[in-house]
Amino acid sequence: MEKPCTLLVHFDKGTPAMANEIKEALEGSDVAAKVDAMKRAIMLLLNGETLPQLFITIVRYVLPSEDHTVQKLLLIYLEIIDKTDARGRVLPEMILICQNLLNNLQHANEYIRGVTLRFLCRISEPEILEPLIPSVLTNLEHRHPFIRRNALLAISSIYRLPNGEQLLPDAPELVEKALGSEQDASARRNAFLMLCNCSQDRAVAYLLSNADRVPEWPDLLQMAVVDLIRKVCRANRPDKGRHIKIIISLLNSPSTAVVYECAGALVSLSSAPTAVRAAANTYCQLLSSQSDNNVRLIILDRLNELRKSHREVMSEVVMDVLRALSSPNPDVRRKVLDIVLDLVSTKNVDEVVLFLKKEVVKTQAAGESDKDAGGEYRQMLVQAIHACTIKFPEVAGSVVHVLMDFLGDSNVASAIDVVIFVREIIETNPKLRVSMIQRLIDTFYQIRAARVCSCALWILGEYSLSLSEVEAAISTIKQCLGELPFYSATEDAEPTTDSTKQPHAVSSATTSSRRPVVLADGTYATQSAASETAGVAPSVLPGSLSSIPNLRSLILSGDFFLAAVVASTLTKLVLRLEEVQPAQAETNKACSAALLVMVSMLQFGQSGFAPHPIDDDSYDRIVLCVRLLCNTGDEVRKVWLESCRQSFAKMLAEKQFRETEELRAKAQISHAQPDDLIDFYHLKSRKGMSQLELEDEVHDDLKRATGEFTKDADDASRLNRILQLTGFSDPVYAEAYVTVHHYDIVLDVTIINRTKETLQNLCLELATMGDLKLVDRPQNYTLAPESSRQIKANIKVSSTETGVIFGNIVYETSNVMERNVVVLNDIHIDIMDYISPATCADVTFRNMWAEFEWENKVAVSTVIQDEKEFLEHIIKSTNMKCLTPPSALEGDCGFLAANLYAKSVFGEDALVNISVEKQADGKLSGYIRIRSKTQGIALSLGDKITLKQKGGDH
Amino acid sequence: MVVLAASVLTKTGKVLVSRQFVNMPRIRIEGLLAAFPKLVGTGKQHTYVETENVRYVYQPIEALYIILVTNKQSNILEDLDTLRLLAKVVPEYAPSLDEEGISEMAFEIIFAFDECLSLGNKENLTVAQVRQYCEMESHEEKLHKLVLQSKMNEAKDVMKRKATEIEKSKIEKGKFQTSGYSSISGPRRSDSGFSDINISSGGSGFGSGSGFGLNADSIDSFSSKSKDRPAASAKAPPKGLGMQLGKKTQKTNQFLESLKAEGEVIIEDVQPSAVQSKSVLPPTDPITVTIEERLNIIVERNGGLRNFDLQGTLSLQILNQDDGFIQLQIENRDMPGLSFKTHPNINKDLFNSQQVLGLKDPNRPFPTGQNDVGLMKWRIQKMDESSLPLTVNCWPSVSGNDTYVNIEYEASDLFDLQNVVISVPLPALRDPPTVNQIDGEWRYDARNSSLEWSILLIDHSNRSGSMEFVVPPADASAFFPISIKFAASSTYSDVKVGSINSLKGGNVPKFSQRVQLITDSYQVV
Hints:
The complex is a heterodimer of chains A (about 950) and B (about 525). Chain A is an alpha+beta fold and about 950 residues long. Chain A is about 55% helix and about 10% strand.
């Protein structure tokens, strides 16, 4: 273990303090100058200087000072200096400070005593502590609580030193005695903690003998009690009941911190449903009583943990958890919904959905005040309800109508969620179809967003089956389109533009006509949705266009994709009408009306009045619809009326399949390991066995947090990372293995003297490029002939970036006084060590994509011929995750687009989009775009991809 | 439930101050703090971030973040409380809440952090309390300083008084020498000064300078207390007296030095226990003369005298003032190296010529009361081994699994010794040692792990004796140092009061004398 670091102070290198200046100031009698000099000395020490000459000055001139600040600074100074030599023995001069410490421990000022006692806690050299122990013990009886508190702390930490029992053989008795007579809360806590750590039996005995009074104890002490119980119950379980009783009594403590801790302890003590229930209830109470978001979020985390291990119990408190939705914080709400959704079961689904429904209605009422937050929240709720209904389709009926009111919501995202929800329900719940269609027709005119419109149109087209429905649908659409034509003939003033555009449109239509994918609107729409909504929504000006029917305003603003959807919907409806309408005349009338609409849309698109001319795809599609209506055939009819719906059903089925697959994968994980213990239900219940693991977890948690806990990779893999730094014929041979931890890089450098001479002042000088920083200053070594030495260098990393470490070895030989230099091979730090695959939702990906400033565009240049193979290759070489679902990548269409995502250990996001197309000659072309918030990632990842994309050879 | 570190960072991520409460290497804490700014998102309504291993709870204040780094199991409610406290404390100390402000007061902030979190455990404090703790204003210290100051003043006063007195006595002495005879004024004043000096010099052995208005009783309790303490703490100055004491003793020393220079008899190394052992029997005779010789002897275990020091005193106790006008006729054996010193108020010429102890001013009585008044001191040094009253030989020998220890004593013919106790230290034993043979009695003191061999009286019938005991094997050096105590009713110098003359004429009051030779310390090392 490295030397612990107790404090950090920002050190401004602009004002270098010279050691002799400090020395002078220390020797002077001016207290203020002395304080200042001490501060500077400490800062220098923290900055890596050693200042050995200063020690004696300090002993001579600072030790006797009576000023309190000087004394305190002195303690800090003593805290950070090296008190041992290289072999771990205490330096002889340290004895000089003992007398001063002793005086401080007997000082008339209680604070000096206290601070000194606290300082002793940080000392681990028994040689220094030994002479002080009697004084520490006498301070235990001092009448000032400040001293007693710290004396107890000091005793505790001395006793816990490796040889502490020998230094303070009777410490537990003394502390127990002190605890019995102590009044000060903090001192009692310290005493109790000392017993917990050093003599658990005594602590337990004390606790049990005072069990009745525990609820009256101060909260600090109660915390310690809970901690002890958690520890003790791991070892001896027979009297667990008594401990649990204490915990239960503490659940009513006025201090919320204690209550929170108790709940945690309960879970770790027992996995019996009663205990878990009590804990869950306590958490829920805290959840509602605490208004701090931090607390709520963390409590929700705890509940979430409970959910994983004790589902049954948690599903009982679902409603209590749900109440936390009243918090205005979106993070809290999201977490609540996450927990609740997972716990929904047949028993509580009605209640939950009812509650959610109420919440939705509430947002409508209160939504005016803060539209943004309300809309976001509504979207969350809609998604939650959606998820519930997927699991339990029977509840859909009760909510879907309420939700359909929100189709016209001004928050596009939540409206989209609603419409997607409706689309899914109408397919999976045939019973609800009739009423839903009716409702949709009624509310259609309210829909403002193009995406929602197109989806709603699709629903109308697919699911209007009966004669009345079809007719109503057609008339609604017509109404929404308003009077035809879209522009009056007098406005058509510029026929020239029209004629020039025509040939162009035709030619591009032919080139793009080989894309069959345009037809399916589901998957394709989700791909291009971001640009769609982003591009169109702002151009809808609700104020100026509100009087105009919605479809008309959208189309007039230039949304020809919507026009195409309208055309195909009308086509579908007319085709259906032909089937259900007995009167041929009516059908023909409808058909001609539809044709008129399509033609006028085309005309508008090619006139100069649209903001931009109609795009080829939409044009193509509308023309196709026109052709179809003019010339129908059975084959086409079947495609339009059945296949479309079938493929939708297939998509839903696939989605469901994927979900169950994921669920199964999750379930797989929690299955027993081959070497797990097998529980024989009839022999012994394992209820309550978990605390052992849990306790270890607590322990490890602290260790991990302080960085003590590092998993040692096996040596074999370590050897793979050896880097040769100098040549074999150099006088000094050096090689290093590079270990990359999270925030730091450790270089283990082996240096071998290959000459027959002694190398003096040998120094490994390293320099870094990129966001790397050397922690230690290089030191000089002397290397005997043909001997070797290990040098460790720590390098701090503060962001994900490819870094380079370069350097040289400098040394002197005995006869020549000049310095020799051997330049080292560069060490490249790989960005791949810092990023790991991660997932995020499509929406967040798109938001980040739009938001991030740095983009690095890499042209594809590879020998790989197959798009998918190329994608695999990139994924493998960049260690990222592909967000695009595999189904979207299926098929052999000659082009491919996929999104990759990864996160760095520093929490930075790395986004990659790959778009490749197969050229006629079989080569792949296209671009890989990398976006990130910081330049480092974009550049480094780009370099990495450029380097690796070639592929093929390995 | 422990906070790992409390830190103050700028919004840009520069670490200004960080105090760690748990042992962690520097690279770790720097890494944690460097990662923090990247983890803090914007637009969040909560102020904590969790990573794989740690949790940061933070609070933005102007251009700064105040951060607590905790483990993930930490109690968030407590941590938030602590953070709130810190957020109140930091502005108290920093003149401005930015980089300069914090850097300027970095150490003060660290001190405050230390108070808010004692080794990572939460303390229930208010800002005012933290401030109070950091200011370190101590009522007790002030009191202590006041006491010291007053003591110092008092000492100065005494010194002045002494100085003038000595001046005066010098002048008077000069007068006396020139004019032959003259009266001494103010007997009472000289009396009080007399006893003062004795006691103050005794007290100074403790370095406490407590020679002011203390009576013998308090010194008694004082010294016994210090004896009861464990050895380590005895080294230290007694409780309640701070480090200023060095100066104090120095002052007292100076004071004493100056007195000495002016011809005052001051024996600085008078043992405090001398005071203790004086309280023997309340005297019944109107005049009691106590003659006492104290021995300090160190003998090498294989023969040879390392140190021999004998100090004798003659003191007088007079119950009634009427009996105070007397002179004492002294008798003594003539010995080499024996020299007497008399109290300054004693007429030296008279003593030198006739061996009569009398006051310079014959019109003054000797001080009266229950206290002994020292009149004369003497010393004997450089004696040889043969003149020791008692010699002890100790022969440990290992045989098989036991160590046999043979001890024998030999007493000189000169003295009859009473209450002889020879204590032999033993190695740590489980059971008392087996004593095979003994002249006298033995006792095993388990606490001090020593064997005490006591002989009530050594006279011509038993000038030598021996004992043998058996203990488990031990190194020979374990049985040393042997310490010996005894008392005798005759002295080396054989000082005696032959007779008492009354100056006022009339009946010579009845007097008794107690003659004693006792050991202060007698060790065989």
